[in-house]
């Protein structure tokens, strides 16, 4: 039985890898499950055994490069007495720097940001993606709304606006770098870019070197 489970997992991995390559080359909307099965060397039945439809497959692909909700909440909580705003800064820097460190992450975000049209076929994946984005923004807003963090916001800046401004910057950096990697160095330039945004949101933002 163990061998059967291992074989099933190998088939699932092969399907995901084939889908990733096809989505990158042709776009999500123009790639069919039949093409994915053929590229993976399996039957369409094998694809449907592991994935309900293309939206489910695409969602599972995106899940490979996202922090689970529980871990995301923990990272933003400022565990161990750490400044939660520094935890937020570190998470943002890490998310962008990982684009340079992880080729699969880079490919998947390129697909999401440049090779995906959320058609009716992908409505379920779109809804799940939007739910994840809204959850992240909500967690960041809750962090900025803490009394110790809120009093550090600049005049006129609310937790709601601060959360949306930071998210907009992250998406902009993801989109720009996956479009043109020459625009900035994710490993060297990201801390300065994130700190520049936080200085526009917070009083006397002086992160450690």
List keywords for this structure.
70% helix; 11 helices; single chain; 209 residues; Tetracycline Repressor, domain 2; Arc Repressor Mutant, subunit A; mainly alpha
Structural class: mainly alpha
Count of DSSP helices?
A: 11
**Poorly predicted sequence stretches spanning 5 or more consecutive residues:** none
Shape: elongated
Q: Can you identify the CATH class of the largest domain?
A: Mainly Alpha
Main beta sheet: none
- Give me the Rg, rounded: 20 Å
Q: How is this structure best described in words?
A:
The protein is an all-alpha fold. The chain has two domains: 2-51, Orthogonal Bundle (Arc Repressor Mutant, subunit A), CATH 1.10.10.60; 66-199, Tetracycline Repressor, domain 2, CATH 1.10.357.10. Helix content is 70%, strand content 0%. The chain has helices at residues 2-26, 33-40, 44-50, 54-63, 69-76, 84-101, 103-114, 123-145, 147-150, 159-179, 190-199. Helix 8 crosses helix 10 (159-179). The radius of gyration is 20 Å and the shape is elongated. The mean pLDDT is 92.
Q: How would you sum up this structure in a few lines?
A:
By secondary structure, the protein is mostly helical. The chain has helices spanning 2-26, 33-40, 44-50, 54-63, 69-76, 84-101, 103-114, 123-145, 147-150, 159-179, 190-199. α1 (2-26) crosses α2, α5 packs parallel to α8 (123-145) and α6 runs antiparallel to α11 (190-199).
């Amino acid at each position: 039985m163990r061998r059967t489970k291992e074989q099933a997992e190998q088939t699932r991995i092969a399907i995901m890898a084939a889908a990733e390559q096809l989505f990158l080359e042709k776009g999500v909307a123009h790639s069919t499950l039949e093409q994915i099965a053929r590229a993976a060397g399996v039957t369409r039945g094998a694809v449907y055994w592991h994935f309900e439809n293309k939206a489910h497959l695409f969602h599972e692909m995106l899940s490979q490069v996202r922090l689970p909700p529980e871990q995301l909440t923990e990272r933003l909580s400022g565990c161990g007495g750490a400044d939660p705003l520094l935890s937020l800064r570190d998470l943002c820097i890490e998310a962008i720097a990982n684009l340079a460190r992880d080729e699969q992450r880079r490919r998947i975000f390129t697909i999401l940001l440049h090779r995906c049209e959320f058609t009716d076929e992908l409505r379920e994946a779109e809804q799940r993606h939007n739910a994840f984005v809204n959850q992240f923004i909500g967690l960041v807003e809750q962090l900025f709304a803490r009394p110790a963090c809120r009093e550090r916001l600049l005049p006129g800046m609310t937790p709601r606006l601060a959360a949306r401004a930071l998210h907009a910057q992250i998406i902009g950096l993801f989109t720009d770098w996956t479009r043109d990697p020459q625009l900035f160095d994710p490993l060297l330039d990201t801390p300065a870019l994130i700190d520049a945004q936080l200085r526009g949101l917070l009083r006397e933002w002086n992160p450690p070197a």
